[in-house]
Write a structure and sequence with these properties.
The structure holds two protein chains of two kinds. By secondary structure, chain A is an all-alpha fold. Chain A has a single domain, classed as Four Helix Bundle (Hemerythrin (Met), subunit A). Chain A is 77% helix and 0% strand. Chain A contains six helices and no strands. Chain A is elongated. The model of chain B has no long low-confidence stretch (mean pLDDT 88). By secondary structure, chain B is mostly helical. Chain B is 82% helix and 0% strand. Chain B is flat and about 60 Å long. In chain B, helix 1 packs antiparallel against helix 2. The termini of chain B are far apart. Classes of the chains: A mainly alpha, B mainly alpha.
Chain lengths: 196, 100
């Protein structure tokens, strides 16, 4: 059975199912991270003392990672734009760069975690570290998800460009929306955890 | 954005580059402000305002929320309402805890 409305827009919503689906998924993701932000506020307001993130975490490393993730968002949107301009070669280059930057982000994050563990700074050490590892760990899992999906579209999934280019472009747009959301979450996590 | 022509996309690419530069500048500003000795409430306010500006740039231009269909806009408005409720729960819990 063929899945309906993968390319053409539905009459009731004016959207194709790909876009409608990814936006509803992202709405649920807002609530997931919103719950954790809410927990952070509750824990911080209720605590007698709360450390400034920069006293425990490395601001230069996190700033570097912020630049990496923003750059990956730009390459992601350029990958989609390349498909719209019928330039499949550039699409591969940009989406490959997005995956590469995502892997770099994870490597830096792993270095950060290893540095904390080497100083016996584990989640059980303090409430601040517990929420730090929970939120950044969940965010890192989202990065892994993005690497898997975008890696598939750079590799075997890209065959669809030859048979159904419009549907493939819509898939890349949906993957891009997810990736920009992951970037957006980090834009808020960075100041909240590292700078305040 | 699904029906956008190649010529229009070329114009969009220039916007993406400008947004990227703006995001870099705002990231430097976020870090720079953190080195100023602001009071905690003011530091939180400034950091969240800058983060919100950066977030809206990503949402408006990279996620194409500018000119997106109403179904998406209204879904997000509803999400924002629920998000605000979620963020106010700690406040209500604190008020209940302190008996105010």
């Amino acid at each position: 059975m063929e899945i309906p409305y993968t390319v053409e827009d539905r009459e009731d919503t004016g959207l194709n199912n790909v876009k409608l689906g990814i936006w509803l998924f992202l709405a649920s993701e807002v609530m997931l991270f919103g719950g954790l932000f809410s927990s952070y506020v509750l824990l911080r307001v209720g605590a007698e003392t709360w450390p400034v993130g920069a006293s425990i975490l490395s601001v230069p490393i996190a700033t570097f990672n912020t630049v990496v993730l923003i750059a990956s968002s730009v390459t992601m949107v350029m990958a989609w734009a390349s498909l719209k301009m019928n330039d499949f070669g550039k699409f591969k280059l940009y989406l490959g760069s997005t995956v590469g930057l995502a892997v770099l982000f994870l490597c830096v994050k792993a270095y950060e975690y290893a540095d904390k563990f080497s100083h016996d700074l584990y989640p059980a050490e303090s409430t601040f570290l517990a929420i730090y590892f929970t939120v950044t760990g969940l965010h890192a899992l989202h990065i892994v998800g993005g690497i898997v999906v975008n890696g598939y579209f750079v590799g075997p999934g890209s065959k669809m460009w030859k048979t159904a280019p419009e549907q493939f472009t819509n898939r890349i747009e949906a993957a891009g929306l997810y990736w920009h959301f992951v970037d957006l979450v980090w834009i808020f996590l960075f100041p909240v955890l590292y700078l305040l | 954005m699904s029906g956008t022509s190649a010529d229009e996309i070329r114009k969009h690419v220039k916007v993406y580059v400008m947004v990227f530069v703006a995001l870099m500048v705002l990231t430097v500003a976020t870090v720079g402000v953190s080195y100023l000795e602001l009071t905690i409430p003011l530091a939180i306010l400034v950091a969240l305002v800058v983060a919100t500006i950066k977030g809206s740039l990503v949402a408006r231009y990279f996620m194409h929320l500018v000119g997106e269909k109403k179904a998406v806009t209204w879904s997000l408005v509803l999400t924002a309402v629920f998000f605000c409720v979620l963020m106010f729960i700690p406040l209500f819990a604190m008020l209940d805890h302190t008996g105010q």
